[in-house]
């Protein structure tokens, strides 16, 4: 028998059509229970139309100290942005 | 009393709410979305080929880096769209099989070769320009994952058209030979770009249904007209000849009139008989086959790890 219940991360979709966003976490014994708790804890003021719960241990995350190897290579690529291309005023609404 | 799935669905469409993967939806709505979204994904991925062909021959290091970034984006956009289509329970294998058998189509423009460096400019300017007109409208599509993929893609793609037009400016203001190259590219890419919007509304098999379900918000002809209206001044700014002698401003309509598209050519190319159809599919299959050993190795590694942790 396990000693403590699991930590779940809670994601809410505030209105139909937008992405679920992380709002916090809570402890529960089962996923169904986590969903019920999430309703009580995170949507008391109708904050959402849909809730996702995901076991925290199921999330694989990058680490802050690895940020360099993840993001540095992007810093010297300004040509990925529209503003890099200077067009004449007549055409600039492109 | 609870409403039927159909009633809830109809009400959501009516109220312009999004449909999400776990919602009930009519089988034909799902089927129609899988068709349109997978073909959109295929267009992104097959579209990497004509431009990719020029990466090693770009005239400067800057152009090469820009082109690499653009082609990389197209691959990423294909991935967003395949993933969004998978939320409808279509599998990647099914989608690839449909592409290879010819059952699933992709934008017929990519069945034409990119013959000169100016084509890379014309593709960014016109093909991406046409795609953006369509995709801006699709940001409002009724299927949530498709809509969100479109929003992300439009944001990332904002540089594609500008880099293409910048290439066209350089050529149009260059030597007479460069200007002729730009004109030639414009003349060839123009018509297939107009074909990207699909058949006339009166001849479009799926349009009525798709509009009803708000998968599509504007008709093929409406979108095509927007593209023509925004592009004609850009052609004039370059000092190039219009690629269609029938293009004329129509004061009454407030739009440019234009000549008729060669629909026989459209049908021929979309059904497999364009200059590059076979090459495109052959290359796609080859890339998929050549990656097979990597997927197998990853699977073997995964199985080994799983059995080690089970022991």
In terms of quaternary structure, what is this?
Answer: heterodimer
What would you say the CATH architecture of the domain at 1-59 in chain A is? Roll
CATH class descriptor of the domain at 1-59 in chain A = Alpha Beta
Strands of chain A, total number: 3
Q: Name the largest protein-protein interface in this structure.
A: A-B, 18 and 25 residues
Describe, in plain words, how this protein is organized in 3D:
Chain A is α+β, with helices and mostly antiparallel strands and 94 residues long. Chain A has a domain at 1-59: Ubiquitin-like (UB roll), CATH 3.10.20. Helix content of chain A is 22%, strand content 23%. Chain A is built from two helices and three strands. In chain A, strands 2-1-3 form a three-stranded antiparallel sheet, covered by helices on one side. Chain A is elongated. The model of chain A has no long low-confidence stretch (mean pLDDT 89). Helices cover 68% and strands 2% of the residues of chain B. Chain B has a two-stranded antiparallel ribbon with strand order 1-2. In chain B, helix 6 (117-138) runs antiparallel to helix 7. Classes of the chains: A alpha+beta (94), B mainly alpha (311). Chains A and B meet through loops of A and helix 4, helix 7 and helix 10 of B.
């Amino acid at each position: 028998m396990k000693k403590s219940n699991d930590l779940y991360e809670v994601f809410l979709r505030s209105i139909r059509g937008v992405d679920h966003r992380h709002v916090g976490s809570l402890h529960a014994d089962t996923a169904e229970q986590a969903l019920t708790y999430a309703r009580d804890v995170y949507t008391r003021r109708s904050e959402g139309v849909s809730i996702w719960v995901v076991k925290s241990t199921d999330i694989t995350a990058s680490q802050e100290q690895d940020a360099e190897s993840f993001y540095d290579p992007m810093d010297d690529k300004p040509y990925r942005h529209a503003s890099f291309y200077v067009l004449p005023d007549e055409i600039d609404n492109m | 009393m609870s409403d039927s799935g159909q009633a809830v669905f109809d009400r959501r469409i009516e109220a312009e709410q999004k449909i999400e993967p776990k919602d009930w939806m009519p089988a034909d709505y799902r089927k129609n979305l899988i068709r349109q979204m997978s073909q959109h994904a295929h267009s992104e991925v097959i579209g990497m080929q004509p431009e990719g062909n020029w990466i090693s021959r770009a005239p400067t290091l800057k152009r090469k880096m820009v082109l690499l970034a653009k082609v990389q984006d197209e691959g990423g956009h294909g991935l967003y769209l395949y993933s969004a289509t998978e939320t409808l329970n279509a599998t990647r294998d099914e989608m690839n099989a449909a592409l290879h058998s010819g059952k699933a189509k992709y934008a017929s423009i990519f069945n034409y070769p990119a013959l000169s460096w100016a084509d890379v400019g014309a593709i960014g300017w016109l093909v991406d320009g046409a795609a953006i007109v369509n995709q801006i409208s699709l940001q409002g599509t009724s299927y949530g994952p498709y809509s969100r993929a479109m929003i992300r893609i439009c944001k990332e793609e904002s540089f594609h058209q500008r880099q293409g037009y910048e290439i066209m400016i350089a050529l149009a203001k260059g030597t007479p030979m460069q200007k002729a190259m730009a004109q030639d590219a414009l003349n060839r890419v123009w018509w297939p770009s107009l074909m990207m919007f699909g058949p006339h509304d009166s001849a479009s098999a799926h349009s009525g249904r798709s509009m009803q379900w708000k998968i599509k918000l504007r008709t093929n002809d409406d979108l095509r007209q927007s593209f023509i209206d925004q592009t004609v001044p850009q052609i004039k700014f370059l000092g190039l000849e219009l690629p269609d002698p029938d293009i004329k401003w129509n004061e009454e309509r407030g739009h440019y009139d234009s000549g008729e598209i060669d629909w026989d050519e459209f049908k021929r190319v979309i059904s497999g008989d364009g200059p590059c159809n076979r090459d495109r599919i052959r290359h796609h299959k080859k890339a998929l086959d050549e990656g097979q050993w990597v997927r197998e190795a990853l699977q073997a590694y995964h199985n080994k790890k799983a059995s080690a942790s089970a022991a």
